[in-house]
Structures are given as structure tokens and as C-alpha cells.
TrEMBL record:
The chain crosses the membrane at residues 63-83, 188-205. The keyword Transmembrane helix applies. It comes from the Bacteria. This is Phosphatase PAP2 family protein.
Amino acid sequence: MTLRQFLLFTALTLPACALLILFLDQPITLFIHRHTGWAEPFFSAYTAAADNAYEASMYTHVLGLPVLWMGLLGLFVLGRWVLKRRWGTLALIVLLTHIASQGTSNVLKGTVHRLRPEVLFSGGYPGTGLWAVGPHNDSFPSTHTAIYFSLFWPLALAFPRWRVPLLVLPGIIMLGRLVMGAHYPSDVWFSAWLVVAYTFLFSLLDKPRGIRGG
């Protein structure tokens, strides 16, 4: 991804998310809730399977670190320092993007305190639901999006020929957050922007070649 592409995506994303939060998130979410209930079992089962696999990789530790992190670190050392291959640096970019995206998402959740759609479905609330006090106030942004998109987006940029299959898993997760009524569109979109931003930042580690991709 080039600097120009990243800036264009940012110029589109930030105003669009603000517009969604202020005016469109609630009607879009209500429409999805009313018309896609039939698909909830599929997305729920899919997300649960992905979560089980991810949690296993995070709760199983090697040398005090999650096995997922250790695996990516191992690929970095093997590729970068032993085999002298570019994919070693890519493994490090995936790891750093994943940690930073998930961490930032969690920090923002604890700062913004946005009410989840389930509160809207159960009777509604005034305003945008931001900085709300009480339960179910951790909607913005979507941590599920940050977790899964961050593991695949750097790979999709590095291997454009495999971009579509690489993005199927996180794409279904992201769509599922809307269908299941767990998040608003802006929650998902902003998390995707976080991943894109961190991927662009950490891809500078691979300069002058960078992560290529459209």
C-alpha cells in the first residue's frame, strides 16, 4: 500500500465513520437486525469456531508468550536471519500489527464507552450512545475485526494473487458482527482502518521494498 492510497482511505474513512455515528449507524443496524435474522446461526457458529481456535493460540504459552506470538517471532527469526527471506519481516509486521490493533481497540473501548446495538434493540437510547455509563457500553470499535483482520490484511497486501481467499475469514467475521447485532457499521469500519494504519506504519520496517499491493 502506498502513502497516497493510505491517505485516500483515511480521508474517506474518518468522515464516513463520523457521519455513521451521528446519523446512519442506528437505522442501518435496525434494518440489518430486522432482515438478516435467518443468517445469525451461521455467523454465530463461524465466529465461535474462529474464537475457539484463536483463544487456543493465545492461552497456550511457550516461554511465557502465546504460541501465536511465538510462532510469528519464530518465522521472523527463521526467515529474516537464517534464510534471509522477505517473508521473515512480513511475519514481524503481522505480529506488530496484530498486537497494536487489538491493544488500541481495547483502549478505545474503555475510553469511548459506546452502547452496543442490543441496547438499541431493547428500547433505544438518546443520542449516539457515546460515553455512556452502565453495562453494554463497549461497542466502539470492534475488537473482533481488529483481531482477525490484522492477522490477514498484511498477508493480503504482500500476496495480492491470494488476496481474496486470505480475506474470506476476516470478511465473514466482520460481516457477522453486523448480522449478529454485536456492532454498528462504524465500529467495524474504524477497526479496519486501525489495521490498515498499523500495517502501513509497520511496513516501513521492510523499506525500501515495502509491502507491495494495490
